[in-house]
Write a structure and sequence with these properties.
Structural class of chain A: alpha/beta
Order of helices and strands of chain A: HHHEEHEEHEHHEE
Shape of chain A: globular
Shape of chain B: elongated
Number of helices of chain A: 7
Helix content of chain B: 55-70%
Strand order of the largest sheet of chain B: 1-2
Strand content of chain A: 25-35%
Number of helices of chain B: 4
Largest interface: A-B, 37 and 35 residues
Order of helices and strands of chain B: EEHHHHE
Distance between the termini of chain B: 23 Å
Number of strands of chain B: 3
Strand content of chain B: 5-15%
Helix content of chain A: 25-40%
Oligomer: heterodimer
Largest sheet of chain B: 2 strands, antiparallel
Radius of gyration of chain A: 16 Å
Distance between the termini of chain A: 26 Å
Chain lengths: ~210, ~160
């Protein structure tokens, strides 16, 4: 992960909770329902300041990762309120230190708009998921409509200076990383979505 | 099948989707919150329309011609749009308002700039037209949102 990316999200950590207040209010119920499908050992990718911890069912064993030290610092405080086992560690989803097949479920929440190489990150998730492990995603993506999609493409480079890339094809990236996409659910237009995917075992030679 | 606990009788259940692989998703949100969030979207876009068109009209001088007026109107409109939607994004997030607000700002910015370049129009008139444009665009986006929301069928992915 480049210093630029780490610095960008370290800076974003300052007003992160306030900036996401509206998103949590509107989409919190959807996240809660999605996260209720977590089973076994869980990894949360890009925990941010830990706003999403509140949506996990109690009693899980969760490893939450983020590459921004400032985000991790804030997330550790919120982790103390979780009624279960929640460890927050500084890690980069594109280069995970965890051994293969370590987790039963991986959860992402507005994550793959920010990972510099999303396919590499998703392949790492595939590696650390157990065979047939679940990937649960709450993500915003590029609009399918021609006009809206084109507008997002124009605005994306400017938004990316201080925040995420808003025109990612996350469904396509999930498939390219070797997952079987089992579910796609539109929350707001076709720009905010829930995805569910399964890490099917890779064939030798793939 | 995964089900949430109904929080209270005032709750409204949004989109119950059936997916054979993964069961149900039920999203319970307080009825009042849901209505207020949608109302906030409407206010944000309507306000964007009114203020952006007023700004575009004020920014484009009548001596500059229609093309210059259109460009200046659009630039002024986009700046005002960002200032309007940022506070509203703290209420219900930015995703639901950014697209209708951007389309509204583009449209009323162009129209306001060109109109201002060709005629002497009162700021209140600009604001009123912008208000109507914002309302119409937000209604269209609301309908578009309803048509898309929910399960994406395997054949459509």
């Amino acid at each position: 992960m480049s210093e630029h990316h780490i610095g960008k999200w370290d800076n974003a950590s300052k007003g992160f909770d306030i900036m996401n207040m509206g998103i949590e209010r509107r989409y919190g119920p959807y996240k809660r329902e999605l996260f209720s499908k977590c089973q076994g050992d869980v990894m949360l990718v890009a925990a941010g300041t830990g706003l999403d911890f509140q949506y996990f069912p109690d009693g899980l064993k969760i490893t939450a990762i983020d590459f921004s030290p400032k985000m991790v610092e804030k997330a550790k405080v919120k982790a103390e309120d979780y009624d279960g086992e929640l460890e927050v560690v500084e890690a980069d989803v594109m280069n995970l230190d965890f051994p293969g097949a370590s987790f039963d479920t991986v959860v992402t929440s507005c994550t793959f708009c920010s990972v510099p190489d999303p396919i590499k990150g998703l392949k790492e998730i595939h590696r650390v998921l157990k065979p047939d492990g679940k990937l649960l995603m709450f993500e915003h993506v590029r609009a399918g409509n021609f006009l809206l999609g084109a507008m997002m493409d124009i605005v994306a480079p400017f938004v990316a200076k201080a925040g995420p890339e808003i025109n990612r094809d996350t469904a396509g990236n999930v498939r390219k990383a070797g997952f079987e996409l089992t579910r796609e659910f539109n929350i707001s237009y076709d720009m905010v979505k829930l995805f569910e995917a399964v890490a099917r075992p890779q064939r030798v030679g793939n | 099948m995964t089900e949430s606990n109904p929080a209270s009788s005032r709750d409204v259940t949004f989109i119950i989707s059936v997916a054979p692989e993964s069961g149900y998703i039920k999203c319970h949100m307080d009825n009042k919150t849901a209505i207020l969030l949608r109302l906030s979207d409407y206010v944000a876009v309507v306000l964007t329309g009114a203020l952006c068109m007023a700004a575009a009209g004020a920014a484009a001088p009548s001596t500059w011609g229609m093309f210059a007026g259109m460009i200046i109107g659009m630039v002024a409109s986009m700046i005002v749009m960002i200032a309007v939607i940022l506070p509203f994004s703290l209420i219900g997030g930015i995703f639901d308002i950014v697209m209708p607000a951007m389309i509204t700002a583009m449209f009323v910015g162009m129209a306001g700039g060109m109109w201002s370049a060709t005629a002497d129009v009162a700021t209140g008139t600009f604001a009123a037209y912008g208000f109507v444009a914002g309302l119409v665009i937000q209604i269209m986006f609301h309908i578009y949102h309803i048509s898309l929301q929910g399960e994406v069928l395997e054949t459509e992915r």
